[in-house]
Amino acid sequence: MSGGGGAMESSLIAKHLLLCCLFLVASALAAVAQAKTVHEHWDISYQFTHSDCVRKLAVTINGGTPGPTIRAVQGDTVVVTVKNLLMTENVAIHWHGIRQLGTPWADGTEGVTQCPILPGDTFEYRFVVDRPGTYMYHAHYGMQRSAGLNGMIVVAAAPGGPDAEPFAYDGGEHDVLLNDWWHKSTYEQAAGLAAVPIEWVGEPKSLLINGRGRYNCSAMASDAAAACNATHPECATQVFAVVPGKTYRFRIASVTSLSALNFEIEGHEMTVVETDGHYVKPFVVKNLNIYSGETYSVLIKADQDPNRNYWLASNVVSRKPGTPTGTAVLSYYGGRSSPRAPPPTSPPAGPAWDDTAYRINQSLATVAHPEHAHPPPPRADRTILLLNSQNKIDGRVKWAINNVSFTLPHTPYLVALKRRLRGAFDERPPPETYNHTGYDVYGVQANPNATTSDGLYRLAFGSVVDVVLQNANMLAPNNSETHPWHLHGHDFWTLGYGVGRFDPAAHPPAFNLRDPVMKNTVAVHPYGWTALRFRADNPGVWAFHCHIEAHFFMGMGVAFEEGIERVGKLPEEITRCVSKKGGQH
Amino acid sequence: MSGGGGAMESSLIAKHLLLCCLFLVASALAAVAQAKTVHEHWDISYQFTHSDCVRKLAVTINGGTPGPTIRAVQGDTVVVTVKNLLMTENVAIHWHGIRQLGTPWADGTEGVTQCPILPGDTFEYRFVVDRPGTYMYHAHYGMQRSAGLNGMIVVAAAPGGPDAEPFAYDGGEHDVLLNDWWHKSTYEQAAGLAAVPIEWVGEPKSLLINGRGRYNCSAMASDAAAACNATHPECATQVFAVVPGKTYRFRIASVTSLSALNFEIEGHEMTVVETDGHYVKPFVVKNLNIYSGETYSVLIKADQDPNRNYWLASNVVSRKPGTPTGTAVLSYYGGRSSPRAPPPTSPPAGPAWDDTAYRINQSLATVAHPEHAHPPPPRADRTILLLNSQNKIDGRVKWAINNVSFTLPHTPYLVALKRRLRGAFDERPPPETYNHTGYDVYGVQANPNATTSDGLYRLAFGSVVDVVLQNANMLAPNNSETHPWHLHGHDFWTLGYGVGRFDPAAHPPAFNLRDPVMKNTVAVHPYGWTALRFRADNPGVWAFHCHIEAHFFMGMGVAFEEGIERVGKLPEEITRCVSKKGGQH
């Protein structure tokens, strides 16, 4: 339109502009109105529980374990007010998979992002759930996660938004939280791990589905059996009900302390559609391998005989199982079977526990959904090779990364770095690599110079970092375990998996740069390597560690700092353990 | 000498003065040289222990329980550097019987005098042991004392000083620390006490002498018996060796969680000479009743047949015993019996557990040594009557004092009062008395309006305070227990004991104002009362409570403030749990 338009035209333009403007404002208002605040008020206390029918003192949320599922919509602010009613014990809670953009102090990682919450204190975690998906929360202090403080976070996609699900299900959703369970207290477990000689935690007593398992009371000695009540309502089998013909989304999270699991719904194939908050190119499995710290969504169609029930089964893989199958029941509405009736079959036993190739295949099959691929930057600014090894340090069995066994500093990194406290941690950076040309990952290695350190990796803000996790043999011959590594504050691209020793020259050209799925937790398979990439663009300090509780306790982790100068003012409440006299004391 | 004395005389006077002055200076220097600093460095950690042959996770000092005996001389400064190596649990240590003159922040009472010590923190307790005597230390946080963190403090009299012992012993000293022991963790105990319905801790599994007991492994179920090792060196019977003909001082302390004990040395009469750091008019007993928190010194003469051994025995009294006799062995040097040989007799069974009169008689016999009597002020400025009752509050069984069940504030009183923080605790003072004319101490009472509160008594500085502890029936009919009450920061005069309801008009004239012994812990006997007097002259805030761990946990205590304005600058380290935003949060 030229400068000399008539009154009529001008009026039309103005009208257009006004409408356009109103629409924009309305949209913005709608968006604002949509994003709400989800409040949770949690009392943390010790309670006697019967998760697998055996009475055990557990750390509970509002009296129960697992805790309530947090349900929110993408963009919501979640506010969890945590009151610590443990008598003498502190607590910290991690929101696993939530990136904490702009709120690094709310990550809940004791020693990294906050001082622990003292008994009697109330602490407010406040963060935005910026992405839809299936997540979890759990204690991140000592070995407190194993004591029962855990639960799920379910974030729905904003309706009609760019992250809406690229799949449909007309039946609704079911949440499945998988766990393993011990009868010894976490204190006993930790004291045993730190003892000389080490007393290993051993295989779990039970596998739990939604906090329910079933220990064989009759196998217990008479005096101990008094604490076992097979009819206790807390260990009643969980029933998942479905309407014949409908399709359901099962959200599955594993918060196990130790076990890699295989999950199966008897008679029902599963279509994998999401992992760790990212949509995957759908693929069908009979059963699903899931490692501690991972989440998946699968779709199942209720298309089987509705007049009988079906097992949900979790089985230990990767370690030689010493624990019965964990079970729940799938039941059809309107069928002739009572919902609680045990299925007429034996529960699925899962694949061979030592079939590593089977599990690697699932890792390789898990790639980004084509409509939701976020291709990674084409190259990394820095590559860090992390070899894990089992070592002896001062007579104690430890895990080490590049021969350094990780310990947490007393003053949280976030506080020490933000306040520039000196001496709060070992300021020498940990090693960037290991002897990657000569190390025999299949043999027992001496690793004589292993040390402990709370040093951390400092990353250039915005830089692209590749990390290659290298697995190897442990102290015992012919033994290499699966380690699920979890990165805080980020999702990373899973660029590749391999068997044997990673070759920095040979392997990167085969990295999947086309459609790698993003995740926050990834397995490094026995004797194998896993390569991942992330952008160090989230100001804060972030733990990266094996999600097996005992392994992290024994030193299997590192920490990354990035953009500390961009971190906002720290809440006073996270600094309660920091001496005014300085970092170390 | 008159004013006009000659030069000769002046010179003599000057010489005299000079000599006198030099002597004073020398004395002062000698005193300074004598007072030394005793350093202890303690690592607090969980360790598996076998105190009664059964494996149990205990809170230990430098790996052991009980901890080392602190040995010092009157006037010494004791510095204990405590490093908390518990993984997720805080700690605080109370120096039981040490008055903390000028160092109220070093009393180690969580919630009263300090914030707890966080995991990874190092805290320095520094205080003067101003009086000779037998004392103890133990955790004072939650129910942590029961977990094994305890030990003895032995303060020798300054040689030749005014507090030198009015008795002699040529054989030396033996220390005896009595305890009771459970196999459940203190977490389980505390969770049970707080449960609805209450799950009582029950009778102890074993009685320990110097941390050693002997559980009957063969009585355990097969799977539990694996944790019982009758030949474990940690539960080897303690042997006390004596030289024939010599006289020994046995220092005896009871740190039991629950049990009133009777202690006996088979075949050897005991002459009681000290209690709680005060010399008593010697009296002879066959066996000694000792309540949790009390200490005694007794003299025994090694005048029996040296060719056999003798039992040391501790037996439960006041509660119907459900625990075998705790034992150790007395053995003569040069005798024909092996030191570890069990005596040829059965261990002494002690007096009838319910012979209250027998125990009251010992209380009445315990009066001040005539050369060391510190007569009390003739009258009190204020009298506080404290009725204890068992109550139900919100369905939970509690103990209450004048119908108020005591809770500890989150911000320690000492910090809240010194910093004048508002809202840190209930500022309404607790009741000064109860219905002392009408209350039936022998019947079950409803006490419908019982409440919980963290209010405290504020005492005029320097005033003389009488406290009368009134015992009564519990919730169950025909049941009244012995409660040993311990006052922090003070010794008090024990003015009198009575049976039934205290009458403020009738009973005080019979108070013993002539030679009452001073103590820091005193029993109130079943259905009885105990009167005590102290001067509120130690600036600080001081707990006063039943020394039965479960009873204090259930609310059986009060707190006193006096002279807060005279308290010096608080160390920053005790304030770590205090929010900058104010007392309450």
From TrEMBL, chains A, B:
One term under GO cellular component: extracellular region
Entry keyword set: Copper, Disulfide bond, Metal-binding, Oxidoreductase, Repeat, Secreted, Signal
One MF term in the entry's GO annotations: L-ascorbate oxidase activity
Signal peptide: 1-35
Taxonomy, superkingdom: Eukaryota
Catalytic activity: 4 L-ascorbate + O2 = 4 monodehydro-L-ascorbate radical + 2 H2O
EC numbers: 1.10.3.3
Biased composition, class Pro residues, residue ranges: 340-350
Major localization class: secreted
Subunit-structure text: Dimer.
Protein name: L-ascorbate oxidase
Gene: LOC123398800
